[in-house]
Specification:
The protein has 277 residues and is mainly alpha-helical. Helices cover 64% and strands 0% of the residues. It is built from 16 helices and no strands.
Length: 277
């Protein structure tokens, strides 16, 4: 089997040689801005030991070869070149979909990032969300992509919510839908009314969804004397986001969250004050 090529390692070698020749040519800030440009140029640079440019090397491969190479990079611990990822992004989704059947979290996460919000990946995304062994970080990464096309994912999200699967993530996803739907609204409203510690977050879902019919429920909760300062802030934001207003004066001077936030603000203000010489 042909040895993997560490393109990023080769770039670092070239960069180190350049730095050695011109150690004082650029400031650290200038170097930080220049390196991405040099890396882009490197992609079109002919490398004798490779017999091609980094971009050309991957462009010449079939979909199957690229996926196989990606799997080997992850398995053998060789850094995955950005040029490999960018080439995979230009291919049809069918090239990457098989990766969503893998078990390695790193490969799955990379596949999700490369497939993005392509609807062709949605069935596999929901299959992964349904699996109990799917790590929370991966589930959240999937939902970030689904939220970009929330309307297309609505039906499956409702089904998973009704089945009790990853309910909080499904609420977040449903709150991003733009097509008005009474069932979605009722799900979000009921979840808010039945919430415990999640109440501030679920108030945020109602604000995100943007249906002013939720105002009565939000106003009823914010007027309770047993809510804390953090809950009050989230509820007030949601009410105002939906075009409502809450004006009753409230005293949170003894609230633990209020005192903590106040102390932190005073500390930051004190640190920001110029010191006397």
């Amino acid at each position: 089997m042909e040895k993997l090529i560490d393109f990023d390692g080769l770039f670092e070698e070239k960069l180190a040689a350049f730095l050695k020749r011109e150690p004082k040519k650029f400031t650290p800030a200038q170097w930080e801005a220049l390196i991405p440009k040099l890396y882009a140029q490197y992609g079109d640079t002919y490398l004798p030991r490779v017999g091609n440019t980094p971009k050309g090397y991957f462009a010449a491969m079939t979909d199957e070869q690229l996926v196989s190479l990606l799997i080997r990079h992850e398995k053998e611990g060789v850094p995955v070149s950005d040029f490999l990822c960018r080439e995979l992004e230009t291919r049809a989704p069918s090239a990457l979909l098989p990766l969503l059947s893998r078990s390695e979290p790193a490969l799955l996460t990379l596949a999700v990032n490369l497939l993005g919000d392509d609807p062709a990946a949605f069935p596999a995304y929901f299959r992964l969300l349904e699996e109990k062994d799917t790590e929370e970080d991966l589930a959240e990464a999937i939902c970030e992509q689904l939220k970009l096309r929330a309307d297309a994912a609505k039906s499956q999200a409702l089904g998973m919510y009704r089945a009790g699967i990853r309910r909080e993530l499904m609420l977040d996803l449903l709150s991003r839908t733009t097509e008005r739907d009474d069932e979605v609204f009722e799900v979000l409203l009921r979840a808010f009314k039945e919430s415990g510690e999640e109440m501030p977050v679920r108030a945020g879902y109602l604000a995100q969804y943007g249906d002013p019919r939720a105002l009565d429920a939000l106003l009823a909760v914010i007027d309770r004397d047993d809510i804390n300062f953090l809950e009050y802030q989230e509820l007030k934001y949601a009410i105002e986001a939906l075009g409502g207003e809450y004006t009753r004066p409230r005293d949170f001077s003894e609230d633990a969250y209020y005192l903590e936030i106040k102390a932190d603000a005073e500390k930051r203000a004190e640190q920001a004050e110029p010191k006397e010489k």
